[in-house]
Amino acid sequence: MSSSRQAILSDVRKALGREAHSVIEPHPFKERIALSQAGIDPYQQFLARLEVTGVTLEALADISQVPEAVAAFCTRHQLHGPLAVAPALASLPWQQTGLQTDVGTAQGHHPIGVAQAFAGIAATGSLVMLANADNPAGLNFLPEYHLVVLDKSRLLGQLDQLWPLLSHPDEGTAQAVQLITGPSSTADIGGQLLYGAHGPRAVHILLID
Amino acid sequence: MATMTRSSDKPLVGLLHTCLVDFYRPSIGFASVQLLEQAGCEVRVPDLQTCCGQPAFNSGNFDQARAMARQVIKAFAGFDYVVGPSGSCMSQVKVHYPQLFADEPDWLAQAQELAGRSFELVSFLSDVLNKTDLQSSYQGTVTYHDSCSGLRELGIKQQPRKQLEQVQGLSLVEMAEAETCCGFGGTFCVKYPEISVRMASQKVSNIQASGADTLVGGDLGCLLNISGRLTREGSPVRVFHVAEVLAGMTQIPAIGEGEMR
Amino acid sequence: MQLSSANFKSAARAALHEPNLQAAMAENRNFAAHVRVQVDGTANFQGLRAQAKAIKDHTLAHLDHYLERYEAAAIKQGTQVHWAQTPEQAQQIVVDICRQASARSVIKGKTMIGEEMGINDALARAGIERYETDLGEYILQLADEPPSHINGPAIHKTLEQVQDLFHEHHKDLGRESFLHEPAELLAEARRLLRKRFFEAEVGITGANFLIAEDGSHVLVTNEGNGDLTSLLPKVRIVLASIEKVLPSRADAGVHLQLLALSATGQPLTSYTSLYGGTKNAGELDGAEQCHVVLLDNGRSEMLAGEFRPMLRCIRCAACMDNCPVYNWVGGHAYGWIYPGPMGSIWTPQLTNLEQTVDLPNACTLNGRCAEVCPMQIPLPDMMRVLRSQHWQQQLTATTTRWGIGLWAALASRPRLYRLLTAMAARTMAWAGSKRGRLSRLPLARGWTEQRDMPAPQGATFQQLWQQRQADKNGSEQ
């Protein structure tokens, strides 16, 4: 369909009165508008947003406490595994949990997926997940319970602060960047808000302080 | 620019009475004159005015809309201010005349000049003359309907409410969805009567739920529509134009009311 | 989709008398009010709005450039970019990709561009099974109906209607009891669709934005169905239109926040995902092929004229959710894919002017849509431009044409005007003098069928004013 390509581009240029390789005026903005006021503590704002979206959070002193916390979560919700755990978190002491732990992505039979967030956004209450070999995206969508490890130092105030970090060469290429701002939800059945439409019915953050 | 013979050094105001007020309810015109005179203006009523051309404009007949705009521009040349008791007609003058003459520089300049000195009545009293000392009274509970053009094109929202609060004996209550269109919409009300009536009925339920005994608004078109539905539903709610209430001219039958109440 | 906008009047009348629809639309009014509270409580919303408009205007003014940049970046990520001038070309592209993948079934996320392309019918003709995964779309697939809203395609369906639909269509699957609870219905749909996600060879989604900087596309959902559709099948097809491109991720960030806020009052939807191309070596999830289909279908023509601002539209649906007409008649009355105020502009551009005359006329020009539009699209002004095109092309209703013509002729002759209006006012006042109103009026049945016409006071203002001036002059002499 390369003829369609040429036709569309030529129609667009004709409509704009432009030639191929005409001058591009500079982009109107370098700085983007932030959604919330300055002077608010990002952590407090993050917690306030989570209240609204229905995401829960518990703070841990050290990342080594994650398996224990996951096990306690499972007990609270009467979940018996197996756990699907991101390769990024494979080195943690999962054997302590006594639960079957599969490192990799989630399959249909995993009720719990444990993944590591790249960052958090306070203004929107979002978790930023990079889909790559260390953090398979299936973990974020297939299990009913999504447990996310977030380092507090990775909490950003505004969405805008995220983009430069993603362009950093150390980050490698991610197949996808997923901003998660609440459990999977729908209002399509008679207008009622329901959780767990296709993805997780609950999102729980393990915040490493 | 035409010059006018002045009989005083008061601001000279040309009243754009609107075709609906001229035809249906001259009392709104007289109330407007009284309010303007009390506020220290000298008021004149050009007899070359008929209609601002909004029906033609909104029907897509831009040529005739321009012809009528030219007539208004000529009729109101030389006044310090042009004031009318309607957000919709004044928005036609203030906002849409300049749009209509975008491709005619001579007329555009005149349209812009007219737009700069044209105002809807209540916002003129509040924002231009800073008039706050009203001497009128009305016994009743009033709810105010925000007409769309005045609200969204001219920013008329608090001015009528602040003025109404000055009226002795009047208590103001807000109805739900006060900013929602009543379904008049010029020719819309006859082109799509079923939808229009549904919107008017919703407005009527909101008025009734507010507990008000009087509906007040700033555009006669909307008031005719709402009143027409109120009376058809047998509602006792009375309907007045805001100018009538502010001028204390409410001893006459309300809109849609007969001689014998 | 068959264009049936010419039946607007009868469809709207029927809609007004459909109790299920009226219940659903009342719910939509409440929802819209809730969303506005969130928007109004958001600091810097107006600043964000102005910025988004400026970014999009810049992008549209250089659309060829950004499309080429997007394409180059997407190819670099392993995406194949296909261009379609017409819906038919797009259908062919999609069917060919499905055939090459030997697809027996496809799973599909909600895509309005897909509706515009007519993908559903094309897949059916090609014998490919299609499973809608957005719950609203799933409900509509069971009901065999088109969407009535661009974000909540099934907002016109009440809970009772969904219960009945599920009962009727799921009974073959071994279900015996009638499910009442929304949560039970959801669990059933989730279980049924989960199987389809794993089976399908191809996943089709729309795209909310395309990003020129990195060749990715953005997908916004609350259910997460779009992500499963993108991630699980081997082949991913993304349906988009040419105006969806934005220069950078940061630009998309501005638009994404506006979109979520204006659509549902959320600062971001539950899932906002930027998808690059195919999966990288060592990755466990993701598609092996990624195809993007770019549709023009009249948009390049819109760029040239006064409808260019419509191309800023981010499909948040704020205009329809806040439209008093849409909220009474529902989306189906508009007779095509895009309903409400935005649809009343899009539909004539993408189809034709002749069969869509009602759309920009069924509007009171109340301005609420432009007030809430996050992209500041002057919708009422464009409604008037369409009406002027009707006038020029003799498409305006004959009664309106005559009425306006006569009125204008009269109004441009002030003396005659004063004489005739004075006579008419006196006559009407006399006829309605006792009750102060008329219940019947010749030539105005539309008005008086369900409401009264208040009677004039008698003399016109001009008559009374001139009398007053004469009296004044008399007393001064």
From TrEMBL, chain A:
Name of the featured protein? L-lactate dehydrogenase complex protein LldG
Q: Name one Pfam family in it.
A: LUD_dom
Boundaries of every LUD domain copy: 111-208
List where this protein forms a coiled coil.
none
Q: Which domain of life is it from?
A: Bacteria
Automatic annotation (TrEMBL), chain B:
Q: Which GO terms describe its molecular function?
A: oxidoreductase activity
Q: Which residues form the Cysteine-rich domain?
A: 14-94, 142-226
Q: Provide the coiled-coil residue spans.
A: none
Q: Looking at the UniProt record for this protein, which Gene Ontology cellular component terms does it annotate, in alphabetical order?
A: cytosol
Q: What is this protein called?
A: L-lactate dehydrogenase complex protein LldE
Automatic annotation (TrEMBL), chain C:
**Where does the source fall among the domains of life?**
Bacteria
Q: Which GO BP terms sit in this record? A: lactate metabolic process
Alphabetical UniProt keywords: 4Fe-4S, Electron transport, Iron, Iron-sulfur, Metal-binding, Repeat, Transport
One of the record's GO molecular function terms: metal ion binding
> Which PROSITE patterns is this protein grouped with?
4FE4S_FER_1, 4FE4S_FER_2
Q: Where is the 4Fe-4S ferredoxin-type domain?
A: 353-383
Q: What is this protein called?
A: L-lactate dehydrogenase complex protein LldF
According to its UniProt entry, this protein's organism is Pseudomonas segetis
